[in-house]
Amino acid sequence: MEKKNIDWSNLTFAYRQTDYRYVSNYKDGKWDDGELTTDATVVLNECAGVLQYSQSCFEGLKAYTTEDGRIVCFRPDLNAERMYNSALRLEMPPFPKDRFVEAVKAVVKADAAWVPPYGSGATLYIRPYMFGSNAVIGVKPADEYQFRILTTPVGPYFKGGAKPVAVKISDFDRAAPHGTGHIKAGLNYAMSLHAIVTAHKEGFNENIYLDPATRTKIEETGGANIIFVDADGNLVVPKSASILPSITRRSLVYIAQNILGLKVDEREVLLSEVEEGKFRECGLCGTAAVISPVGQINDHGKVFEFASGMEEMGPVLKKLYDTLTGIQMGRLEAPEGWICEINV
Ligand code: PLP
Ligand code: COI
Question: Which of 255, 251, 249 lies closest to 223 in space, CA to CA?
Answer without folding.
Answer: 249
